[in-house]
Amino acid sequence: MADMLGFPKKIWRSLLGCYYNALHNVRTMEAYKRFLYRLPLQNNKIVMDNYEGRAYGESPKYVAEELLKRDPRYRIIWLTFNTDSPFPKGITPVYKDSFRAYYECATAKAWVFNTRCGKLLEKRAGQVFLQTWHGGVALKKVEKDAMPALTDGYIKAAQYDGQAADGIIVDGKLNEELFETSFWLSPNCERLKFGMPRIDVLIQEQNNQELKRKVRKELGIADDSFFVLYAPTFRKKDTFEGYVTDFSRIREAFEERFGKVEIAVRLHPNDVRLLARYRESYASSLVDATKYPDVQELVLAADCVITDYSSIAYDFAIIRKPVFLLMTDAETYKNERGVYDTFYDQPFTMNYNEDMLIEEIRGFSAEDYRRRVDRFYEKYPTFNDGHAAEKSVDWLIEKGVRAT
């Protein structure tokens, strides 16, 4: 059987093997990089990466859309391991582990990443690196504060990234302080108090009702259903310790309080490998939203979230949608990773078992919840105003990004 290029499978696999051997040969790659560094930069090319090669989404997506909205002649390259995923017109997916990925990174005027750049290449003179970062309010310790839990390779990449970044997007006072102490940032890296581009779509919710309906339709959730998103963060072990195991009781509590209910599960990207086993064991009655490409669209479409230690809680809180915490493994989690003081200063009720969660659902007061969230943001102001993507593009243009 031949593939689309006409090669039999055996020959095709052999050719692919030669390709990847060359790609990962140190001497070959050093020679290739030296060649790439001689090529001119393309001022209209911007390379983007979401969670180290995942699909189209997060803050880079909204920066890309703002660029193309201003001028379709911008060339947006998206590094991904999912080149078969749908990408909109104007976005070119490129397989991240490839010679072409190195070429695109070496010749782009700008990089826009939401995690560490991974040091594909040394950033060249004249290139611009915008770090959008993916975390909002940090509860668990990260970066320099979590070094015992990090690999040496990650630490080296993070240190390089912090020195290479020309700008990092800051979403609020808490992150502003965290970046200063824990992100290895160069003094030359601009702290951009823009808020997160991915939050724009939420703050502009009234302008995005059609998108909200589209998301619900794709998931099979009726417009008149109360949509609960279950979005736990990842665990170090391949177990379901800390995950919800009895959705029937939780569903019943929501139905008593809110009427017709649909629940969707969204596992963390690091836990995608557990999805099939989790659904088989506990979540067969739930809508599967784990592989939905843009979590912000899920936040927009959902009415509330159940989570634990994930910063997604604050994506809901910033637009005052209800947040319910279930933290059955809180002591284990705190001991393994460590937490910041904000862990104990959240505007949400900490439920340490499912009985506590069900009691909170049944007695939920929207007025009391809003007061608690308002007080939190008075204490820890946010910079999100719904225009972060616009400000990010303005900054890139100031740094020399051009459509032609």
Task: Compose a concise summary of this entry.
The chain is α/β, with parallel strands linked by helices.
What does this protein look like?
Helices cover about 40% and strands about 15% of the residues. It has helices at about 10-25, 25-35, 60-70, 100-105, 150-165, 175-180, 195-205, 210-220, 245-260, 275-285, 295-300, 310-315, 330-335, 355-360, 365-380, 390-400, and strands at about 40-50, 75-80, 90-95, 110-115, 130, 165-170, 190, 225-230, 260-265, 285-290, 305, 325, 350. Strand 11 (about 305), helix 12 and strand 12 (about 325) form a beta-alpha-beta unit. By secondary structure, the protein is of the alpha/beta class. The chain is globular, with a radius of gyration of 22 Å. The mean pLDDT is about 90. The protein folds into 2 domains: about 35-200 and about 385-400, CDP-glycerol glycerophosphotransferase, N-terminal domain (Rossmann fold); about 205-380, 3-Layer(aba) Sandwich (Rossmann fold). It contains 16 helices and 13 strands.
Q: Order the strands across the largest sheet as they lie in space.
A: 3-2-1-4-5-6-7
- Number of E-type strands: 13
Q: Number of helix segments?
A: 16
Number of domains: 2
Could you state the order of secondary-structure elements as H and E? Answer: HHEHEEHEEHEHEHHEHEHEHEHEHEHHH
The rough form would be described as globular
Distance between the termini: 45 Å
At CATH level 2, the architecture of the largest domain is 3-Layer(aba) Sandwich
| Name of the level-1 CATH class of the largest domain | Alpha Beta
Report the helical percentage: 40-55%
> How can the largest sheet be summarized?
7 strands, parallel
